[in-house]
Design goal:
about 290 residues; 10 strands; binds ligand C2E; binds magnesium ion
């Protein structure tokens, strides 16, 4: 039952925490739903700390195809097999991992697994030309050891650097632009390529876009969903594709679910396509298992 001094302090603390999480200078009132949310986040976090040591994380891969429908790349997407909650999607645990610094270890594991897989594909004529795309959080890129951890993963596995694509989001580019550019340049010199993910949803400045050593713009799936029906989305897709073309970058459409969307985007000159129409993210066998 609520009412004791200790409880009231605990409730105030939760409300305070929420106010801070929402950007400070806010009024936040305690309610029972907040308590439930805080407790479930706390228990999720506790479990997440164990997820990697207990080998509950797995990578799924989703194909990215060219204009003829041939696979040219796979995007690696994390899944968490929770012992009681089932599969937890990355949208639920990545933000938590970022907030509490767990993303560094997890991200490193993802890099190592991906590079092992890339090295594996080199022995398979049907897959040796595929690239592998990995999502990288702001928190990882900001870390002083990031460039070294990519270099290490490539060295440890013997993966070809020029087949590794790192996907960054626009939020990555908001602060410390010069430092970001320096790190990207260092990785680019090793052969690593870069894609800007979820393009169109953030606040990219066009001048930064020109300065960054990018190779691809990925059109966010929110614009692809209604691209054939909503004239505004059609215009946005067309604009992103021509922006990519004029900057010498490839345009990749995310979330392509129908033949009509594929045809429409192809006619606009989009270079590559990803979505349920071509394949869902599927588990990948670990490199050790396929070796
Ligand atoms: P993202 O990088 O933009 O990945 C694409 C997301 O769109 C994936 O969601 C994919 O399953 C989903 N998707 C692909 N095709 C379709 C489609 O045709 N229709 C619809 N409705 N959805 C489609 P997922 O796997 O849930 O991942 C969500 C986000 O979590 C990713 O967005 C990425 O930002 C993040 N994420 C996933 N794995 C990692 C990782 O290893 N590290 C980091 N830092 N973030 C990751
Ligand atoms: Mg991505
Ligand atoms: Mg995306």
């Amino acid at each position: 039952e609520a009412g004791g001094a200790a409880d009231i302090l605990r409730y105030a603390d939760m409300a305070l925490y929420r106010a801070k999480a929402q950007g400070r200078n806010r009024l936040s009132l305690f309610d029972p739903a907040l308590e439930a949310a805080v407790l479930s986040q706390a228990s999720l976090l506790q479990d997440l700390r164990q997820a990697q040591p207990r080998q509950q994380l797995a990578l799924h891969a989703q194909p990215i195809v060219d204009q003829t429908g041939r696979v040219r790349s796979q995007e690696m997407l994390l899944r968490w097999h929770h012992p009681s909650r089932g599969i937890v999607p990355p949208t639920q645990f990545i933000p938590l991992a970022e907030q509490h610094g767990l993303i560094l270890d997890i991200g490193n594991w993802v890099l190592q697994q991906t590079c092992a897989l890339l090295a594996d594909w080199q022995c398979d004529p049907s897959r040796c030309r595929w690239t592998a795309a990995v999502n990288v959080s702001v928190r990882q890129l900001r870390d002083a050891g990031f460039v070294d951890s990519v270099r290490q993963a490539l060295q440890d596995t013997g993966a070809p650097a020029h087949r590794l694509r790192l996907e960054l989001t626009e939020s990555t580019l908001l602060t410390d632009v010069d430092e970001t550019i320096a790190k990207m340049a260092e990785l680019r010199a090793m052969g690593v390529h870069f894609a800007l993910d979820d393009f169109g949803t953030g606040y990219s400045s066009l001048s930064y876009l020109r300065r960054l050593p990018l190779d691809e713009l990925k059109i966010d799936r929110s614009f692809v969903a209604d691209v054939t029906d909503d004239p505004n989305d059609g215009v946005i897709a067309r604009t992103i594709i021509s922006l990519a073309n004029s900057l010498g970058l490839s345009a990749v459409a995310e979330g392509v679910e129908t033949a009509e969307q594929f045809a429409f985007l192809k006619a606009l000159g989009c270079d590559a396509f990803q979505g349920y129409y071509f394949g869902r993210p599927e588990p990948v066998l670990s490199a050790e298992a396929t070796a």
